[in-house]
Amino acid sequence: MFLTNVLFKKAKSKYIMVIIESAVSGHQKTRIRDRLADKMESIEFDPYIQQESLYKECKKIRSMKSTWKPTVYKQI
Known about the structure:
Helices cover about 5% and strands about 45% of the residues.
């Protein structure tokens, strides 16, 4: 009988996919960040108001594979 499934837990991934939302218009985008990093905040272009706006993380969507390499976004 194999007990490997019972003895070992699945390792947590290094990255998670999150939704960031504009503080001005409510426009949402998805981004990927490190699991251990602080909540994401960034200044990005908001297509609803045609200007740059502050985006804040509002929800975690899912975990990402640890072999995936993220694009570095400037955080404030």
